[in-house]
């Protein structure tokens, strides 16, 4: 059943004006689009998180003079923390 058919059915069955029923359907569509946008935003956080975690793992495997703690590592940790808190 399409949204328009459902709106007409609800309007007819429950005596709701067609205009009011279509406004409600538009609100439902808006919520569905909002939820879809949130899901896409969450998915977009997974890529930076994966990359940062891989970089941190590579840095942990360094030895000797190559094993340093610098601004880059702190930035990687910051991005990782942000992504984990917002997913």
Supply the key terms.
87 residues; mainly alpha; 80% helix; rod-shaped
Uncertain segments of ≥5 residues (pLDDT<50)?
none
Fraction of helical residues: over 70%
Based on secondary structure, the structural category is mainly alpha
The total of helices stands at: 3
How far is the first residue's CA from the last residue's CA? 34 Å
Biggest beta-sheet profile: none
Quaternary state reads single chain
Instruction: Compute the number of strand runs.
Output: 0
The overall pLDDT, averaged over residues, is 79
- Radius of gyration, whole Å: 24 Å
Number of domains: 1
Secondary-structure element order, as H and E? Answer: HHH
Strand content: under 5%
Outline type: rod-shaped
Strand-helix topology:
Layout: H1 3-14, H2 18-60, H3 71-85
Helix pairs in contact: 1-2, 2-3
Structure explained in plain terms:
- This protein is mostly helical and 87 residues long.
- It has one domain (3-85).
- 80% of the residues lie in helices and 0% in strands.
- It has three helices and no strands.
- Helix 1 (3-14) crosses helix 2 (18-60).
- The longest helix is centred in the middle third of the chain and has 43 residues, at 18-60.
- The model has no long low-confidence stretch (mean pLDDT 79).
């Amino acid at each position: 059943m399409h949204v328009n058919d459902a709106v007409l059915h609800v309007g007819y069955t429950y005596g709701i004006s067609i205009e009011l029923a279509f406004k409600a359907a538009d609100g439902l569509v808006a919520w569905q689009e909002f939820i879809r946008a949130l899901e896409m935003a969450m998915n977009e956080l997974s890529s930076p998180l994966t990359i940062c975690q891989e970089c941190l793992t590579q840095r942990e495997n360094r030895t000797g003079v190559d094993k340093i703690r610098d601004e880059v590592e702190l930035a990687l940790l910051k991005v990782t923390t942000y992504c984990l808190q917002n997913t």
